[in-house]
Amino acid sequence: MKLPSALPPGTRTFSRRELLSLLATGAAGAALAPSLVSLLARDALAQGTKLAQKRLILLWLEGGPSQLETFDPKPGTAVGGPTKGLATDVPGWLLSDNLPGLAKRAGDLAVVRTMTSKEGNHSRARALVHCGYTPNPTVAFPSLGSIVAHELGDLEGELPAFVQVNGAPIPGGYLGIECSPFVVNDPTGRIENLSYARGVDAKRLDQRERMVDLLDQEFAKRGGAPAVDANKSERKRARRLMDSKLLAAFDVDEEKEATRTAYGPGKFGQGVLLARRLIERGVSSVEVVLSGWDTHQDNFNRTKKLCDELDPAFSALIDDLKKRSLFQDTLIVCMGEFGRTPDIAGGDGRNHWPGNWCVALSGGGAKGGTVVGATDELGKKIAERPVAVADLFSTFARLLRIEGDKEFHAGLRPIHLVDPVGKALPELLS
Amino acid sequence: MSPSLMVGLPGRAVFVLGVAAAGLPGQTAPPAPQNPVPATTTAAPQEVAPPDLSVAEQKRLARKVDAALEQAWKDEGLAPAAPADDATFLRRLSLDVRGVIPAREEVAEFLASRAPDKRERKIDEILEDPAFARQLSYLWSRALLTSAANGGEARALRPYLQARFAERAPFADVVRSLVAAEGRKREDPEASFVLAYGGQPEALAGITARALLGVQIQCAQCHDHPYDKWKQTDFEGFQSFFANVGRGAAMDTMVDPRRERFAALELLQQGLKATEEKEAAEAATGDGATGGDPKADPPDSGPKKRRPRRRGRLSGDLAKVDDPFALETSDPDLYQRCVSGMPAKTKERFDALVKRHKNAAGPRFLDGQPYQETPELPRRAALAAWIVAPENPWFARATVNRVWSHLFGHGLIDPVDDLTGSSDVVAAPLLHELGGEFQAHATDLRFLVGALVRTRAYAAGNAAGGDAAARAKRERGFAAHPMRPLEAEQMLHSLERATGRGDRADDAASPERERARDKQLAKFRYYFDDDEGGAADSFEGSLPEALFMMNGDRTNQLQLELKDVLAEIKDKDERVRALFLATLSREPTEAERGRLAPFVSRGAAKDGFGDLLWALLNSAEFKLER
After folding, report:
1. Interface probe, candidates A139, A412, A413, A417, chain B, greatest B C-beta count within 10 A
2. What does the pLDDT look like over A349-374, one tens digit per residue?
3. Owning domain of residue B353
4. Alpha-carbon distance A325 to A327, whole Å?
5. Closest Cα to residue B154, out of B112, B119, B98, B197?
6. pLDDT class for B311, splitting at 50, 70, 90?
7. Which of A84, A85, A216, B238 has the fewest beta carbons closer than 10 A?
8. What's the pTM?
9. ipTM at complex level
10. Nearest CB neighbour to B216, from listed A182, A230, A412
11. Of B310, B344, B360, which residue is a domain's last?
């Protein structure tokens, strides 16, 4: 019941798990099962009945980006520093002059300026903002990327359902190891362990695998059958990826020079370009990490440099997705674990500040030209509309058409996919 | 390490009972307000005869376990599996106790030995291996650390545990050190556990109860537990023990209630004054409006007269307030007047103070015993003593159950950390008995493991044949030994050993190598770990794992082990045998020899045998423990 994997983007495919659960719950029973499978498969393939499938590209700014140098500048005030404001085409809305490309695209941008949390420690805040729940030592929460892979991705596909470019992965948690991210450390280089080892070609690998099969057959006879089955399917999946024509998705060299330049030459820019390529080929969830935002020293220069990577990549992604008619179904989320202190510390630095910080969204049905919430004159307090991380996740769920109140059992307790205390932001839902 | 804790650190020769055990009130409950643990930490340690930790004593306990399980098998109608063969037993023992497969030479020697007591002697030998301490440190840092921990502190915990286990510290002492530790970030490794959750009393309460007591009170954090007995007040009382663990430092000194009360009153006073000033200003402008919209904070930069800081003088109404933390309910009008004009920053500080006061209020042990804070017995020291006391209803059982589960693949109670809520229990009285034995034998983990690996159940073979359900039932009842995927740590060490890099001669005692390994482990966890989410006996692996095993350097480069085998051994059959011993820790079967022979004869020896080694490492059997 394997479905062809090179489906056009936007086609709804059914994972093995979904099919099995459909079969298990359906009144059809065993006798009708095969016809149900083929029916579903045909349905999934039929262009006419396809459901618009959403995807996620998460631009993760590791370290806690300064809101004052990005999406909530306070130029000319005691806290503003040298950063200037840049008018956008949305009246009255300023972005920092570090983001000229995004300022021009503000009509496609939705920014929440009043995110607030209590987590000022990197690892805990990273977990909170990735997973949408306050970290709890007794539950292994999956991150947003894993949630999207599980709910919208093809976990049996040729390409991994969730790819992460750079950064440390957060495992799939209670959703299982198959929802963990597949990590690419260098978008322009070799992917770790993906190509044949030196001196090993397909023929030799076939031969080696025959030896494994032989060992495994013997072991299955001695009671190891469940492990042997898992071992076989795991290797098959790996081999399928190694030999996949879709692997070209990982090769950003195929892109035109102008496109590559537009995204920016660095690992991040090329990673975002890679994200676009992967989305086009059916990957449902990609996270691209840009590190270095923890600017306790020299905040202004360092943040500007990082913005010089972020701004062109984010801008090019918006343009590119629009050009390819993928914009409506691809949600771009840009965020980090917290903001930075309005007061400027010694050494021109800014310290951790979870009290108010920013998240930017684009595409995926998020209403462009929207700004949610406002901070006070000196950016130290939320003047209107505080937004909790749970609210943000409810918004993601609505935009991505994920059932946030689906219940899972993580160890001993029932857990909702998305924290039920959150309320989606109506301003962002178009 | 604080001096008070030194008391509880016995050397190997003389067992010294520390504060927890010395002079404890026995089973008869003490009068209510009295602490369940003595109020002094400086009591002279009492010397008693060291407990018998001998092999003979371990065997006595093993026979007791045998009898209990044999009864359980009879009751459940389970047929015990035939004993595992020597090769399986050695690999299992080595993986469980040392965290690594046995070396090729060790397997050959063990299989060749005709000594009738060779298993007993191997157990003695492996229990003395320094890698045992490392394996225990993995087991407990897995239990104590989660993704909610602060990274920096978390990293320091495992090496600390290994050092303590290497000196054979009784487990009760290790736990006491961890729970009662005082110290600062990155300075005191023993404080790494509490600081890993610094500033989060609720997380510390949840993880301490779960990992060290095997009870799931965290569900009662927000509401009474749905099916267990825990109430929200239990959680609150327990979490109060951790109120003094900050983000940067864990101090267990007492909070002075008079100073706290005064600090709160002073903030209320500031608020009251601001409200009055605001009212006066409004009256002066003829506005006439009184009181205030509680939402309207005056700007911080308001009338910028420096308030005279007069400590110790409170204005009329407030001077009469006894408990400022209860003002909101005891005198709502006055409270409103105080907070309505209170500047936002002051209000934040006041709220934080109230929250801390609430958090810190009324520590209660989970068995309902109250605790009276005294300077001599600060709260976490008291908690630590209560946890490890022989009278504690959970600690010993929780510890035994976790160790049991590590060795047998299932706990006597499953899930391993739900002693009070789970009904999945095997041989119910056995865990109680083992808990008592564990306490009576100085909470010595080596004794416990030594006893359990000498049981009949530990030496049982796998449940070959039968359908999955029947098999699962036998495994659950410990009538047959389950197959389990290797943990990331076991995989790292075993791959190192099988490919011959690193620890042929075990170097578990080298801190430099251990540090390097901890870094590598992060990667291995990404490859191999199912984290807490998946079922423990699921063999489903990840795509990165498969790619690593198939294409990674570790399985493809010309390994030292292979070089040695090719240099030492010329006979093809013997070479095949050596690689089986190095990876699967057993002899190849006739069928395997015959079917693999044509493959290894092709091409150069290093290629043919390189392919065989690769295939062995990629086989299902290598990736699991059985």
Report:
1. A412
2. 999 999 999 999 999 999 999 999 99
3. 257-360
4. 6
5. B197
6. very low
7. A84
8. 0.78
9. 0.79
10. A412
11. B360
